């Protein structure tokens, strides 16, 4: 079976109320990710910086303008088993400030999108394990 490596960049996007944006995955092909909650993420493209990927994709998929304020000093590694291949994903995360918005969902793999208070609402959602780890780390270091 083929092996694939992927680099993914995530953004913890804060609004003026200190809420963060979460998204619900729509991915029936990956049963352990389907309908789980996540933070905005995208695959890094060849030759593109992580910051450029995050800024560009967030705008393209949600019409949100962000300013990256901090790199979260934590990386995660996740293995996924697909029918055709095994995937090793390296994940990196940034904290971002919302600078402008006209929220429109333009991603077929997102079922829902919400602003939540991470301190009080974190345990009310069924998050992907890696997302939960990043949000907990973010809260511990805030």
Give the secondary structure arrangement, pairings included.
Layout: E1 2-14, E2 20-25, E3 37-38, E4 41-43, H1 50-62, E5 64-81, E6 85-101, E7 110-116, H2 118-121, H3 129-140
Parallel strand pairs: 1-6
Antiparallel strand pairs: 1-4, 2-3, 2-7, 5-6
Uncertain segments of ≥5 residues (pLDDT<50)? none
Helix content: 10-25%
Which strand order do you get reading across the main beta sheet? Answer: 4-1-6-5
Number of strands: 7
List keywords for this structure.
single chain, 142 residues, alpha+beta, Nucleoside Triphosphate Pyrophosphohydrolase, 4-stranded mixed beta sheet, 3-stranded antiparallel beta sheet, 3 helices, 7 strands, 20% helix, globular
Short précis:
20% of the residues lie in helices and 46% in strands.
Question: What do these coordinates show?
Answer:
The protein has helices spanning 50-62, 118-121, 129-140, and strands at 2-14, 20-25, 37-38, 41-43, 64-81, 85-101, 110-116. The chain has 142 residues and is an alpha+beta fold. The chain has a single domain (2-140), classed as Nucleoside Triphosphate Pyrophosphohydrolase (Alpha-Beta Complex), CATH 3.90.79. Strand 5 and strand 6 form a beta hairpin. The radius of gyration is 15 Å and the shape is globular. The mean pLDDT is 91.
């Amino acid at each position: 079976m083929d092996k694939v490596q992927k680099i993914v960049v995530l953004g913890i996007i804060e609004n003026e109320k200190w809420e963060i944006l979460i998204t619900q995955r729509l991915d029936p092909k990956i049963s352990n990710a389907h309908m789980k909650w996540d933070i905005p993420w995208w695959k890094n493209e060849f030759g593109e910086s992580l910051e450029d990927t995050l800024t560009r994709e967030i705008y393209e998929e949600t019409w949100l303008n962000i300013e990256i304020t901090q790199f979260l000093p934590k990386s995660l590694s996740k293995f996924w088993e697909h029918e055709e291949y095994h995937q090793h994903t390296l994940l990196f995360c940034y904290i971002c400030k919302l600078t402008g918005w006209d929220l429109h969902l333009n991603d077929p793999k997102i079922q829902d999108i919400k602003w939540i208070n991470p301190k009080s609402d974190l345990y009310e959602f069924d998050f992907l394990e890696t997302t939960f780890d990043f949000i907990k780390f973010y809260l511990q270091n805030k």
